[in-house]
Write a structure and sequence with these properties.
Elements (H helix, E strand, L loop, with lengths): L2 H16 L7 E7 L5 H15 L3 E7 L4 H13 L7 E5 L3 H4 L20 H6 L1 E2 L2 E2 L2 E7 L1 E5 H7 L7 H17 L6 E4 L6 H13 L11 E2 L4 H13 L13 H9 L3 E6 L18 E4 L13 E8 L6 H11 L2 H11 L12 H6 L2 H4 L1 H5 L6 H4 L3 H16 L5 H16 L2 E2 L6
Parallel strand pairs: 1-2, 1-3, 8-10, 9-13
Antiparallel strand pairs: 3-12, 4-5, 6-12, 7-10, 7-11
Helix pairs in contact: 8-9, 8-17, 17-18
The protein binds alpha-D-glucopyranose.
C-alpha cells in the first residue's frame, strides 16, 4: 500500500473517531444580533467552537438592532438564495414566515437535543413537522423600576396600569422639581417596528383585548378593550413618557434609563446586567417585576426570543448545523445567561446556581417567562410580518395623533380581513 494511501486512511479514521473535525475545511457565517452584549457573546462562543474545530472558520455578521430591519436584510439574502450566510439568528415570530428557506435540523442531530428545551418553543419552531430553527434564548417583556425612587417617594411597585401611571407621574414631578428637567416616568418601545407590536400587545392583552388574531384564526383586534389600551398608551406620550417615545426602541430606551432619566422602563432581560456596570448612574438602584395588569386583572408579557436556523442555500450545511446545535447547547446558553442575562431555552439551566446568581429574576419571575403571551405568528403564517406591520403602523398613527384609536383599529380590521381572509371574532379573555 502506498504511503499516501495509508495516511489518507489514517486521517479518515481519525475523522470518524473524533467526530469533531470535518472532512473539509469550511468557512461559515452566522448573522446575529448586536443588541446589548449579543455581538461580543456570539463572537466569544464562535471562538469556542473554532478552538474545538480548527478546520472551521466562523464569521459573525453584525445585523441591524431593530427586528424589522433585520428581517429586511435577511430577506435580501434568502430571496436571492445567497450562500453568504449559513446560520441565521431568527426571531420567535419568523419560523412560520421563513420556513421554506431553512433546513430541517432533525436531519442533523437535533432530535437528541430538543427534549431539553421548552416544548412550546420547539413547537413554535416546527413547521410541517420540520424543525426549522433551534431554540437559543427566550425573552419576555419586563418592568424595570427604580427602587431608590419608589422608596424616596413612598410607593410600592405598581400592580395595575392605573397605579403605575400615578406613580410614574408623581416621581416625574418630584425629580423635575428637584432639578432634572430631562426626567420622565416611563420609557418604552414606541417606534414603528416590531418592538411596538410587542409593547402594544402587552397593553391590549393585559386589558382583556386579545391577541390581534386569535390562535383559532379569528381577527379579534376591533374591540373596546383594545381601543381603551391604545388610548391609554397614547395619552402617555408627552405626559409620563417623552414625546420622542414614538421613536424609541430597546437600545434608545435603555440609554435614557441608564442615564438615570426614567423611573420605569419596559425592556427585555438583556438590559438587566447593563445598568449595573461600574460608573452607571443607576448601579444597584433598580430591579425588575412583571408589567402591571390592566382590567383583565392579569399582567401580560409578550413572548420574544431568538433561534438559530440553517440556510438551505449554505454550501456547508453539515458544518453550519453542527455549529448551530453547539451554539444552542448548554455550554453556550449558560455563558450567555451568566454574562448577558439571555434567558436559556434549556429548562435545567433555570436550576443552575451560577445562572440564578447572575440573574435572580430567572427564578423569581419564572412564571412570567413560561406564561408569556405569543404574538399571532403561527395563526397568520406566512403573513405574520405583514400583519405586524399593519398593526404597529396603526398603533403608531394613534401615538403620533394622526388618527383616533377607534378609526385606526377599524381600518386595521379591514386591512387584516383583506390580507388574511379570516373571519372576525371576539377576543379570548386571559
Ligand atoms: C426582542 C425579542 C423579539 C422581538 C423584538 C422586538 O428582541 O426577543 O422577539 O421581536 O425584541 O423588538
Amino acid at each position: 500500500m502506498r504511503k499516501s494511501l495509508v495516511l489518507a486512511l489514517l486521517l479518515s479514521m481519525i475523522l470518524v473517531v473524533s467526530g469533531s473535525v470535518f472532512a473539509e475545511k469550511a468557512e461559515i457565517t452566522i448573522a446575529g444580533g448586536s443588541v446589548g452584549q449579543e455581538l461580543e457573546l456570539t463572537k466569544e462562543a464562535a471562538q469556542m467552537y473554532m478552538e474545538e474545530h480548527p478546520d472551521v472558520k466562523v464569521n459573525v455578521l453584525d445585523t441591524p438592532d431593530l427586528a424589522t430591519d433585520r428581517l429586511g436584510l435577511y430577506l435580501q439574502f434568502l430571496e436571492a438564495e445567497s450562500p453568504k450566510v449559513d446560520v441565521y439568528q431568527v426571531d420567535v415570530i419568523w419560523p412560520g414566515d421563513l420556513a421554506e428557506h431553512f433546513l430541517d435540523l432533525y436531519n442533523y442531530g437535533a432530535k437528541d437535543m430538543v427534549d431539553d428545551h421548552f416544548q412550546a418553543i420547539v413547537e413554535n419552531n416546527t413547521v410541517d413537522g420540520r424543525l426549522v430553527a433551534m431554540p437559543w434564548f427566550t425573552d419576555a417583556g419586563l418592568l424595570y423600576y427604580r427602587q431608590d425612587l419608589l422608596d424616596k417617594y413612598g410607593y410600592d411597585v405598581p400592580q395595575t396600569w392605573q397605579e403605575f401611571e400615578r406613580t410614574a407621574k408623581a416621581i416625574q414631578e418630584g425629580e423635575r422639581a428637584a432639578g432634572n428637567q430631562d426626567f420622565y416616568g416611563y420609557v418604552w418601545q414606541g417606534d414603528a417596528y416590531e418592538g411596538l407590536t410587542c409593547n402594544a400587545l402587552e397593553f391590549i392583552y393585559s386589558n382583556g383585548g386579545g391577541t390581534i388574531v386569535s390562535p383559532d384564526k379569528k381577527i379579534t383586534i376591533n374591540n373596546e378593550k383594545a381601543i381603551e389600551a391604545i388610548d391609554m398608551a397614547s395619552d402617555w406620550v408627552g405626559y409620563i413618557s417623552p414625546p420622542g417615545v414614538t421613536g424609541l426602541a430597546e437600545e434608545s430606551a435603555r440609554k435614557i434609563w441608564e442615564a438615570g432619566n426614567a423611573a420605569f422602563m419596559r425592556n427585555w432581560p438583556y438590559a438587566y446586567p447593563l445598568g449595573n456596570v461600574e460608573g452607571s448612574a443607576i448601579k444597584g438602584k433598580y430591579d425588575v417585576a412583571p408589567l402591571p395588569a390592566g382590567d383583565s386583572g392579569k399582567s401580560a408579557a409578550t413572548l420574544g426570543g431568538w433561534n438559530l436556523a440553517v440556510s438551505k442555500y449554505s454550501e456547508h450545511p453539515e458544518v453550519a448545523a453542527d455549529f448551530a446545535l453547539f451554539m444552542a447547547g448548554p455550554k453556550v446558553q449558560k455563558l450567555r445567561a451568566v454574562k448577558g442575562s439571555f434567558n436559556p431555552t434549556i429548562k435545567s439551566l433555570y436550576q443552575d446556581e451560577e445562572v440564578l446568581e447572575a440573574s435572580p429574576f430567572f427564578g423569581s419571575l419564572y412564571e412570567v417567562f413560561t406564561n408569556a403571551v405569543a404574538r399571532p405568528s403561527t395563526a397568520t403564517a406566512p403573513r405574520y410580518n405583514e400583519v405586524s406591520r399593519l398593526f404597529f403602523q396603526a398603533v403608531h398613527s394613534v401615538l403620533t395623533d394622526e388618527m383616533e384609536a377607534r378609526t385606526a383599529i377599524e381600518y386595521l380590521e379591514l386591512d387584516l380581513v383583506d390580507l388574511l381572509g379570516y373571519e372576525i371574532g371576539e377576543p379570548r379573555q386571559p
